[in-house]
Amino acid sequence: MISLSPWWTREHVSRLLTDLIAAEVARLRPGLLGLRNALETSAETAADRVDPDLGRDLETLELDSLEFLDLATVVTVQFHLQETGLDDDLIASHHLGKWVDLILRSRARWDEAISFQTSGSTGRPKLCTHPMPFLTQEVACFADLLRGRRRVLSAVPAHHIYGFLFSVMLPALLDIPVRNVRDTLPGSVLRRACAGDLILGHPAFFDLATRAPVAVADDVVALTSTAPCPDLVWRLLGATGLARVIEIYGASESAGIGVREASDVPFRLLPHWSRVTGSHDRILRLGIAGDTSESELPDHVRWLDDRAFQVAGRRDGAVQIGGINVFPERVQGCLREHPEVADALVRLASAGQGGRLKAFVVPGPACPDSERLPERLQRWLAERLTPAEQPRSITIGSQLPRSALGKPMDWD
């Protein structure tokens, strides 16, 4: 047995499981509403009640046997239960509290790494594994940067790497409480924040939070990541009176890479990262024990010197919606599979249009009524895509919009 790190507690693991299970079931069954709230109730119960006969709360999800195995596999892989031989014990119980106990028992035996899943361009989740010493090194760096925070207000899920680092590891290291604010209006979160609070969010959250003028208490800090924070959101956040706004640049594959505290300055590499000599797209990480590992940057960047850089656009074609990676090409492919669709184009709408995906569709010969085609397509997509992937508007036309050179172009 090893001594458990401060973030491996029933409270933290319950939050992690709640978010992980909700995300996986939403992937298996897009459109299922109210799932996270139901799971949070089960998790709160699990933290207080350990009687094995108190219920089998995972059965309330009404998963079939294959879906349950999928869910158990995702939990096993993220927490590496296979390393301790406790993975088979997971499927023996349908009780969330038992799953929490198994994860804690496993971590007491083996705590070398943790894995996170991120969307791939084909929709198949991509596994990103991180040694715990690397994550501990990073969160210790931010603990120094954020010393003096007294509470974390988290608007992000805990099972992704950003949420795990800053709503699980950081508050455990600083010994401060965490409050989930995802079911609170973003503007209200800013208005009700108290001195010493750290607001953990993403650009879409802060965009909503600043739609109306808001004044923030003294000594409140905002942290944003998962997508580039637009200049307008930076300006609006600056007008609220926040003590600091910190943007983190990173990826599921690498964790945090760089930080900045203004929109008109470049990102600077975190202390444990350095640029690989002669490379424009590779960086080197130096671990606490002197071990090193290389990573490829997820975006094209412009280097200003060996440590300062500007982000110039993603390599993989992903866009971020509400802090979630979404691939327009995957959505296009799904639309083109519909029997009434001849062709389709999907793009990210501007912030003024809502910042969600939009689609342009050319009906095929099998389409009997183009006016009602968007309704049929929305039902089709709701059965196949996650909420973040579903276009919020579908425009119908006889041909895709193209420039004089024949390249796809935007539409209203």
TrEMBL record:
Residues covered by region (Disordered): 392-412
Keywords, A to Z?
A: Ligase
Q: Which InterPro entries match?
A: AMP-bd_C (IPR025110), AMP-bd_C_sf (IPR045851), AMP-dep_synth/lig_dom (IPR000873), ANL_N_sf (IPR042099), ATP-dep_AMP-bd_enzyme (IPR050237)
Name the residue ranges with Polar residues bias.
392-401
Which part of the chain is the AMP-binding enzyme C-terminal domain? 335-407
Gene Ontology molecular-function annotations: ligase activity, forming carbon-sulfur bonds
Q: What is this protein called?
A: Acyl-CoA synthetase (AMP-forming)/AMP-acid ligase II
Which species does this protein come from? Thiocystis violascens (strain ATCC 17096 / DSM 198 / 6111)
Under Gene3D superfamilies, the record lists:
3.30.300.30, N-terminal domain of ligase-like
Where does the AMP-dependent synthetase/ligase domain lie?
Answer: 108-260
SUPFAM superfamilies the record matches: Acetyl-CoA synthetase-like (SSF56801)
* A Pfam family it matches: AMP-binding
